[in-house]
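FIELD: query
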Amino acid sequence: MSGAYLGITREQVEDFIVEHGGRKTGSVSGKTDYLVVGYKLDDGREVTQGGKYRNALKNGTKIVDEAGFEQLIRDRSGIKDFELSSRKDILKHLGGGQDQDPSA
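FIELD: result
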């Protein structure tokens, strides 16, 4: 994962990935299947300027943005209406209530 995401925290995305059998690593290697990128890096730069992005390109790792990640989840999970931006799907699948504010 690299960058900031819209409408959801990085921790929520990480938790979702781990709870559904994925692994979160601190760097991109030849063993990395996907790099999920946000709309910008935490320091405001474009995601294409980050080291993880460059390593993903070098290693041939698939790079997906938020929309691509949502589609990947829909394709692999059968959750046809999954959307990160709504936040309710992440909370529901992590066992949290839909009335909780994940940004609090």
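FIELD: remark
Residues 96-104 have pLDDT under 50 and may be disordered.
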